[in-house]
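Side project, low priority. Logging it here so it doesn't get lost.
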Amino acid sequence: MAPAVIRTTSLTALTLLICCQSKAADPWVVYDGFDGPGKSKHIVLISGDEEYRSEETLPVLGRILAKHHGFKCTVLFAIDPKDGTINPNQNNNIPGLEALKTADLMVLFTRFRNLPDEQMKYIVDYVESGKPIIGLRTATHAFALSSKTYSKYTWNSKDWDGGFGRQVLGETWVSHHGAHRSQSTRGLIVKGQEKYAILRGIKDGDIWGPTDVYEVHLPLPGDSQPLVLGQVLEGMKPADPPVMGKKNDPMMPIAWTKTYKGASGKSARTFTTTMGASQDLESEGLRRLLVNAAYWAVGLEDKIDAKANVAIVGEFKPLPFKGDGYQKGRKPADWAMK
């Protein structure tokens, strides 16, 4: 091989190496380049909770939405600035939120985050833009901000009753309704909502998870529409019988829609489910609910296929939900599509 060719080949290899190193060092992961109805849409999925393994849930959901449905998915994490690892206990740092500037949908799964103003601004700007939002599990109490700039977003805000959770999604943190870690949840379709696009291909009992039902104040505010009720079960298996008595009379909604009119004057579609721990995603019914919700949120409800592929992409062994139960030393690049 001629020297010039050798030099060119070496330069190309070096460029590729630098590119790969740069991507490996990014404190986020991007899934892109797949075909499907969502091809032109960008979803930003934001994780950051100490207990329910959102740092596992959202990469898995992002892979499904990208690989099977064509959405470009950017997944963000709580990052320890000392070593670049994913650390859900680091409640004041989620790099990459500027990705929301090009997002068509924000999927939020955070808990009591105390983000600095420069990061929080990207979320607030997105919320006020009137673009759609999906909230999972602890997104009802997504923020606990010490800065006064965006303090109204805090979960127990008195100035903006219930903060982001109640005002935008429909509820903030209230309490555990089912017994935490001993009573699981079976999803039952709200009577009369069976034909709602988000529920296409889902029937009673398809949704199950080991997480407990959250309490909400009834009725939910504004134009909220409950879609799925959470039947509290006696144990931690899908076939366990329901608890008798007041815990299931009435049953709490575990999935609902709502609209929120931001500063832009546009009304955003929002969808919330109080399920979503990584172990919950082993339920095909819940995965279908979340995929359908993404289609609905971005206005593609006519493309929802009752038999669409919601299979998990790659290996997935969810860790049990518990405080400080995350896998230490993992970096965002570890979630790259293999």
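Brief comment: The first strand starts at residue 28 and ends at 31.
Revisit when time allows.
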